[in-house]
Design goal:
This protein is mostly helical. It is built from eleven helices and no strands. α1 crosses α3 and α1 crosses α10.
Length: 276
């Protein structure tokens, strides 16, 4: 079940990032993230009475720490997606998002089996290959997109690690801490810097869908990491760029290169190994 939840989380993250990336090409990235996280906060509040969980200060604190790291990652990701091809930006982000929690899990004593270890290596290679050369081309002014993508991956990796420290019976409370922290941070910055954070009406639906999918993905990740090793679950979850790249190909017409197809094949093999 841990592998299934992690893969579903990856799918939701990938589709949500695609929606958020499109919205960020039409409006300021921070405005899109703020709008999507407000929607996410509302969904968490509504879900609290439905999803059973014990309220603990530690869980709220770890959620808040993860929320700050995560919102920085999302802002950087949306900025990168707004200026660079999704088929380059998303996989670069995913590679670092996987590496950080894998390192943390191994440092904390995760000892995966040989087959699982091979699957983890293949999954990391798959993410790298999906990003190799990219499905689009970077203009000379756009290497900044890769730098932003690396920063986003670091933020996501720290988010995954922070949520892994929450209790098994915490329910949605860690996500409440995460969303309160992210909305408070972005809202406070908007007030201090007096930046226009209005999202055009035609873009709000995309931002709202991104926010809803992100919350669903977060919950699925929590369910997965409570049932499996952090190092394994995080690698499976970090395969989310595959769905973003596929959508970029279908909707935006960004090209697949042969090396990306190989990467997707490796991702399938890695998924099988990590699911056994």
């Amino acid at each position: 079940m841990a592998a299934l939840f992690a893969l579903l989380s990856a799918a939701f993250y990938g589709v949500g990032d695609f929606c958020g990336g499109i919205a960020s090409r039409r409006a300021r990235a921070t405005a899109v993230v703020l709008w999507s996280h407000v929607v996410g906060l509302g969904l968490v509040v509504v879900s609290l009475p439905i999803v059973e969980g014990d309220l603990r200060g530690d869980d709220l604190a770890f959620g808040a720490i993860g929320g700050v790291a995560g919102v920085v990652g999302v802002v950087l990701l949306y900025q990168a997606l707004a200026i660079g091809p999704m088929s380059i930006v998303a996989p670069v982000t995913g590679l670092l998002a996987a590496a950080v929690p894998v390192a943390a899990g191994l440092a904390e004593g995760d000892r995966p089996s040989v087959a699982t270890g091979i699957g983890m290596v293949l999954a990391l290679a798959a993410i790298a290959l999906v990003s190799a050369e990219g499905g689009g081309s970077l203009r000379p002014s756009e290497p900044r997109a890769v730098v932003l993508a690396l920063g986003a991956g670091l933020g996501f990796g720290l988010f995954f690690v922070a949520l892994s420290y929450t209790a098994d019976g915490a329910g949605m409370w860690p996500l409440l801490g995460a969303r309160c922290a992210s909305v408070g941070l972005l809202g406070g910055l908007a007030l201090v810097r007096q930046v226009d954070h209005v999202v055009p009406s035609g873009t709000r639906l995309l931002a709202a869908v991104a926010g809803a999918l992100d919350i669903a993905a977060n919950l699925l990740y929590l369910l997965a990491v409570r049932r499996g090793l952090l190092s394994v679950v995080s690698v499976l979850t970090a395969l989310y760029p595959v769905s973003t790249v596929v959508l970029a190909r279908i909707v935006l017409g960004e090209r697949f290169l042969n090396v990306q197809r190989v990467g997707m094949g490796l991702a399938l093999v890695a998924t099988i190994l990590l699911s056994t």
